[in-house]
Amino acid sequence: MHIGIGISTSRDHIQAAKEAASKARLSLGKEKIDLVFVFSTVDFAHPIVLKTIAGLLGEVRPVIGCSSLSILSDKGILKYGLVVMLFSMSQDSYFNVACVRDISKKSATLAGAQLGEKLLYGCKGVRRTVSIVFSDGLLQNGSELISGLQEKLGRSFPLVGASASDNLAFEKTYIYFGEEILSDAACGILFGGKWSFGLGIQHGWKPLGKTRRVTKSSGNTVSEIDFAPAGKIYEEYFAKDITELKRDLRRIATLYPVGIKIPGEKEYLLRNVIAIEGQTLIFQGDVPQGSTIRLMIGTRESCLQAAAQAAEDVKKNLAGHAIKFALLFDSATRSIIFGRQAPKELDTIKQKLGKNIPVVGIYTYAEQAPLSAINYLGKTYFHSHTITILGVGE
Amino acid sequence: MIPASGLNTYALMGSLILVVALTLFVLYKMKRLKQVGSEAQTLRESLDEMDEQAKLIVRTDMELNKTQEELDKKVAGLYALQRFSRAVSTTLEESQIFSRIETGFLEDLGFEKALVFLLKDNLGLRNCLNIGYSDEGLATVQAFFEANKELYLKLIREEKSISTVSGSPVGKDQISRVLKANAFVISPVTPREGAKGLLIVGTENSDTVITEGDEELIIILASQLAQALENARLFEKTWGAQQELERKVEERTRELKNVLEEVRVISKRKTDFISSVSHELRTPLTSIKGYAAILLAGKLGDIPKEVKERLEKINLHSDELAHMVNDLLDISRIESGRVAMKKETLDLGEITEKTVDLLSVQAKEKHIELSYSIDALARSVLADRNQIERVFINLIGNALKFTPQAGKITIQSRSAQNMAQVDITDNGCGIPLEAQEAIFEEFYRVDNAINQEVKGTGLGLALVKHIVEAHGGKIWVQSRAGKGSTFSFTLPLA
Questions:
Q1: B204: which chain A residues are within 8 Å (Cβ-Cβ)?
Q2: Choosing a second label site near B78 at 20 to 30 A (CA), which of B31, B176, B273, B420?
Q3: Is the model's pLDDT at B379 over the cut of 50?
């Protein structure tokens, strides 16, 4: 597999599309183009951008990607930017791209299953390697989408996903598919054949306080914890009533998510509260009834250590294969926590992976990956607050 | 064989032991259970205590985070202000000021959108900066503010800002909608020079909490912007004034050149005229003088005494007229450059001595003390002997004319700035200040008693001036009425 990366920060959409595409083409050299990834800040979420890229690259090729708060790249963190990644696949590797639209009009599980089915189309008999999925970051329960996908792709099939973000306005996020700019949609790619990859997923939050049990929940809605109204746990911990909690929710949820203890897993699965309705807590992902939960606490330092660990895990999982490039799906929450020091996290990752390894990343409203990075054949979960690194080997 | 009663006793004892053992076991278990229960209770209490501690930790951590964020924001804001200040203060061009405002400055202050509008003469708005708005978005904002003139004029007049955290809440929601910003600050930009305006910053980010501290930073930013605009405008004004001055100087110089050229042309015409008239006059003058001489000599017969007296007067006046014509002719020749100065090394002492000798009779007649002193360093000059002799005769002759009986005249020479300077000082009647320049003009005579008595053409000093200047020298006079005069002239040293 060969890759070519082109980045532009031009304010003119067409100019930016042309610049990024030409740089990527130049970087790929004479290799054929099989696949195109496009990531951009929301300012570039316009069909003319995709049309210009397609026009410049010549014949129609599969294009997938999504919008992001910022672009993480070798040039640093770009608050205004567009990146085009061109892939030239080796002969013994395969891929299939697919898209599912209008997710809110059907159940997310069904949409996930449909996407899984489309991805599998034509891949029977092929050794499947990994799947990457990009979904609308404002989907109410993204874990159902993943669950639907897993129904078709297999529960332990390595699936890596990113929920698109906008400029923290939480108004609209965008999925790029072909020359279309979509919302309320998800697109994905299924890779097959012989190629190596390594995954690293870490968050850096630690449990704090008593273990609690979810005594009443449905999907991502938790109404009772330890047989008491769910909102009470937050009221007790933060010494605020529900009204105050609602006002400060974004900040509290960012700093202190809830961790779900997964039997057999060392790390806690983090869940972000996105709304409080009465005393009911609405999470971004599902929180199964009966699960053991704890309040989690993290610091910039622990987040940095987690990022370094994720990069180390990628190298470990590649089992001796040299890294060719790395894709980063970094939680937008982490960018809020790091603030001006956000480049430190990127620097740490680059330092661990190797300074010359090309890195392209996006900020996400949620991440999807197996909980344990060491054994990538673990079940994929819907995460919050994590840094997910997918390293592709030579 | 053991009897049956013995068996029963054994069984009874065994049962008793069993019961005791069981009782003891139960008692032990009960005690243990109680102990475990107590331990569990202690553990529960510890957990509850730990949970309480965890709550304290969370609350403290939250406060710490809040403080840290505020601190980060302040540091970032101050850093951004410093960079902003450096960027806008290093240019003195108004348009350059706005192009130097980068998105990064705003982002560090917690905003990603910014607009600057300046007032136009008709109270409309001129957009000078747009960060983060599409053309359509900009047009909407501009239309809103133009439709609400009172709002921005009040802000500018009162030099007050409004934001999502301060000022009257009236209309804030509407402004937020128009600006497409969850938080905004509008601060007046009020330079003392030129158009005033508004700085509008906003953020769509619902996570950004804007505080009064943030608003203060934006107010400082607006005042720095105003200062930069003021500096640029003052510079432009000064530059404009300088340009205007230079333009005027150039214009006046051109006009002066034209006038000078005209003067030159007129002067040349005058010189030519004087030259030709002088030539024309010399011929009839010579004839008049010749005929008068014939008549006086009696070659045409005796003439009566009265006729002879009249003829002598004709002869005398003809001489004066011829002298005047010659002087005029010389002036015009020198002016037109037709007389080449035959420069040679001259001894000023020798010329002075010769002139003093020549004029000593007149001096004696008036009992005037005539003395001279020639500096050895200013003795040799490069000049035309005949012309310089005329200068000396004219100036010393004038001094004799205007110095009263028993007066004093001194002639001195000294070197000054590579030139020889000759000063001829008398203690005569002096020259009024207003006439000191004019005396070097042709036909000018000072209006005093001596001039009314003594005849003169008014050409002598003009001729002297022309001769000195033709040698590259200068001539001037220092005088006070009634106290005498010093005529000074310079000649190039040999």
A1: 167-169, 171
A2: B176
A3: yes
Q: How many domains does chain A fold into?
A: 2
d(CA A68, CA A361): 9
Closest CA to B330 of B475, B460, B443: B460
Asked if the C-beta of A11 comes within 8 angstroms of chain B's C-beta atoms, the answer is: no
Same domain, A292 and A264: yes
The C-alpha atoms of residue B459 and residue B398 are separated, in whole angstroms, by: 12
Interface test with B, best of A166, A237, A255, A341 (most B CBs within 10 A): A237
Does residue A221 have a pLDDT over 90? yes
Query: B103: which chain A residues are within 8 Å (Cβ-Cβ)?
Result: 79-80
Question: Distance (Å) from the C-alpha of residue A394 to the closest C-alpha of chain B?
Answer: 38
pLDDT digits (tens, 9 = 90+) for B285-337: 888 888 888 888 888 788 888 888 888 888 888 887 887 777 777 777 777 76
B residues 38..67 contacting A (CB < 8 A): 47-48, 50-51, 54-55, 57-59, 61-62, 65
Interface of B with A in 202-261 (CB under 8 A): 204-208
Last residue of a domain, one of A261, A296, A331: A296
> Which ipTM was obtained for this model?
0.78
Domain stop point among A296, A315, A336: A296
- Residues 333-362 of chain A with CB under 8 A from chain B are 336, 339-340
Question: In chain A, which residue ranges form alpha helices assigned H by DSSP?
Answer: 13-28, 47-57, 108-120, 142-153, 231-238, 242-247, 249-255, 300-317, 332-338, 342-353
* Alpha-carbon distance A282 to nearest alpha carbon in chain B (angstroms): 19
Residues 6 or more apart whose Cβ sits within 8 Å of residue A199: A158, A160, A313, A314, A317, A369, A370, A373, A376, A388, A389, A390, A391
What's residue B2's pLDDT?
55
Q: Is the per-residue pLDDT at A104 higher than 50? A: yes
Please check whether residues A154 and A95 belong to one and the same domain: yes
269-288 in chain B: CB under 8 A from chain A? none
CB pairs under 8 A between A and B: 63
Chain A environment of B55 (Cβ under 8 Å): 209, 236-237, 239
Residue A295 with chain B: CB contacts under 8 Å: 54, 58
How many other C-beta atoms can be found within 10 angstroms of the C-beta atom of residue B195?
18
Predicted structure pTM score:
0.64
Tens digit of pLDDT for each residue in B74-125?
888 888 888 888 888 888 888 888 888 887 788 888 888 999 999 887 678 8
CB contact A297 to B (< 8 Å): yes
Any idea what the CATH number is for the domain that residue A218 is in?
Answer: 2.40.10
Residues A384 and A358 in one domain: yes
Which chain B residues touch A250 with a CB distance below 8 Å?
A: 206-207
Inspect the interface and report whether the beta carbons of A170 and B59 lie closer than 8 Å: no
In this structure, the answer to whether residues A290 and A363 fall within a common structural domain is no
Half-sphere exposure (CA, 13 Å, Cβ side) for A387?
32
For B337, the 3-state DSSP assignment is coil
Residue A52 lies in domain: 2-202+301-393
In chain B, % of residues over pLDDT 90 = 25
Q: Are residues A275 and A324 in the same domain?
A: no
Q: Taking CB atoms and an 8 Å limit, are A339 and B65 in contact across chains?
A: no
Q: What is the pLDDT of residue B237?
A: 86
Same domain? A222 vs A362: no
Contact between residue B335 and residue B442 where contact means Cβ atoms under 8 Å apart: no
**Same-domain check for residues A145 and A168:** yes
Are A79 and A211 part of one and the same domain? Answer: no
